[in-house]
């Protein structure tokens, strides 16, 4: 592609760089996007998260997110995912 130098002027995600080097349409459906790798929150998980937040928000001197992560029934959620979901809710 003779105009590929123009693409180098802008910041790229790792997925976009992979496509530029390996050829466009080289990524399979859903690959390279963060959203596809993160499982969505179910209504039951959201309810449990809400209850845990209200339970631990009044605890003095403690890290609320660490307490929530320790008592979350679904393992595998990261601190960032929990914080992002709490902000969204």
Question: Summary?
Answer:
By secondary structure, this protein is mainly α. It has helices at residues 4-7, 14-22, 34-37, 43-56, 64-71, 79-88. It has one domain (3-26, 38-88).
What's the topology here?
Elements: H1 4-7, H2 14-22, H3 34-37, H4 43-56, H5 64-71, H6 79-88
Pick out the low-confidence regions: none
Largest sheet, strands/sense/barrel: none
Characterize the overall form. Answer: elongated
Helical proportion, percent range: 55-70%
N→C terminal distance: 45 Å
Structural class: mainly alpha
Please give the radius of gyration in angstroms: 19 Å
H/E element string?
Answer: HHHHHH
* Percentage beta strand: under 5%
- Count of DSSP-assigned helices: 6
- Mean pLDDT score, rounded? 78
Task: State the domain count.
Answer: 1
How many β-strand stretches? 0
Protein name: TIM protein
InterPro entries: Timeless
GO cellular component, one term: replication fork protection complex
GO molecular function: DNA binding
Q: Explain this structure to me?
A:
With 89 residues, the chain is mainly alpha-helical. The protein has one domain. It is built from 6 helices and no strands. Helix 4 packs across helix 5. The longest helix is centred in the middle third of the chain and has 14 residues, at 43-56. The N and C termini lie far apart (45 Å). The relative contact order is 0.10. The mean pLDDT is 78.
């Amino acid at each position: 592609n003779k105009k590929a130098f123009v693409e180098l002027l802008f910041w790229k995600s790792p997925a976009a760089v992979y496509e530029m080097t390996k050829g466009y349409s080289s990524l399979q459906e859903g690959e390279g996007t963060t959203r596809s790798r993160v499982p969505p929150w179910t209504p039951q998980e959201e309810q449990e998260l809400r209850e845990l937040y209200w339970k631990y928000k009044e605890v003095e001197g403690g890290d609320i997110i660490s307490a929530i992560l320790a008592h979350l029934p679904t393992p595998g959620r990261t601190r960032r995912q929990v914080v992002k979901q709490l902000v969204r809710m």
